Amino acid sequence: MLTMQEKLKIFKALGNETRFLIFKNVFTGGYTCSLDKKQAGVEVNPIATCVTTIAEHFNFSLPTISAHLKELKEAQIITLEKKGNKVYVEPNIETIRQLSECFATLVANFDENRELFFSKTVAVH
Amino acid sequence: MLTMQEKLKIFKALGNETRFLIFKNVFTGGYTCSLDKKQAGVEVNPIATCVTTIAEHFNFSLPTISAHLKELKEAQIITLEKKGNKVYVEPNIETIRQLSECFATLVANFDENRELFFSKTVAVH
DNA sequence: AAAGTATTTAGGTAATTAGCTAATTTACAT
DNA sequence: ATGTAAATTAGCTAATTACCTAAATACTTT
């Protein structure tokens, strides 16, 4: 279960356009063009990419992208793993799965409560 | 389908603790204690509440809460409806339902792609 | 019509965020 | 060992955000 503070960090992280785009591409493999640049013998998720490759997709400086990645990592929606002199960026699907379940539960409970309310109303008439 | 800009507005709205708490309580009926304060003859969702009632739950000024509500409204996750001299705040479940579906799709696609990848890998060996 | 209640607008300040360049660190390759 | 590449840290600025109080608006009640 995600705590409120964890959810707040995720929403803050995803509420910025640059971070949202990074998130989107990291999760959907938008950066896999970087596969060929990977170092021989390094085992990584085939969807993984590295910081400089991501930065190449934006008109922002590398330190700016690095800071955005740090924030996405602190929100636990990506992982950063140093291998050699590169930092590999990978999606952390488990956090997104948990968030997805939070929303599904919220919607389901809402619908259930609404149904309860309306069936009560019908019974009265 | 929610556009990226719509999603960004939702995440920005929910990335602030005060707005998150308002959102939570508006959706789960946390403010229904205000029901008895409603004006006679006014038809509202039984979960609805009004701006002042919400503000009473926080140590922030009424204008601050009003501004937060405006932002939640612009993110389309609540609705504000003026009836008499009160503004009734109601959850907008449809937007949350759409967001929930976005996350569910993201997770499902991710899992499907991962499965495809691993089955391919197995085939090669 | 005057007073009261609910809410928003206006205008201000302090804190936070998003960006930059320059400098530093770490690892790799020559 | 030296140079190159990848990334982070430090230190700065501009823009945005979150709050406030006071004033204005809109509606209701007396």
Beta percentage of chain A is 5-15%
Q: How many beta-strand segments of chain A?
A: 3
Question: What is the molecular shape of chain A?
Answer: elongated
What is the spatial order of strands in the main beta sheet of chain A? Answer: 1-3-2
Which architecture of chain A does the CATH hierarchy give at level 2? Orthogonal Bundle
Strand and helix order of chain A: HHEHHEEH
The parts of chain A where pLDDT drops under 50 for at least 5 residues are: 33-41
Q: Write down the CATH topology of chain A.
A: Arc Repressor Mutant, subunit A
Can you give the helix content of chain A as a percent range? Answer: 55-70%
Number of helices of chain A: 5
Task: Please tell me about this protein's structure.
The structure is a homodimer of 125-residue chains. Chain A has one domain: Arc Repressor Mutant, subunit A, CATH 1.10.10. A three-stranded antiparallel β-sheet of chain A has the order 1-3-2. The termini of chain A are far apart. The model of chain A is unreliable at 33-41 (pLDDT under 50). Helices cover 58% and strands 11% of the residues of chain A. Chain A contains five helices and three strands; from the N terminus they run ααβααββα. In chain A, helix 1 runs antiparallel to helix 4 (62-74) and helix 2 packs across helix 4 (62-74). The first copy, chain A, is mostly helical. The interface between A and B is medium-sized, with 30 and 30 residues. Chain A binds a DNA duplex (30 and 30 nucleotides) through helix 4.
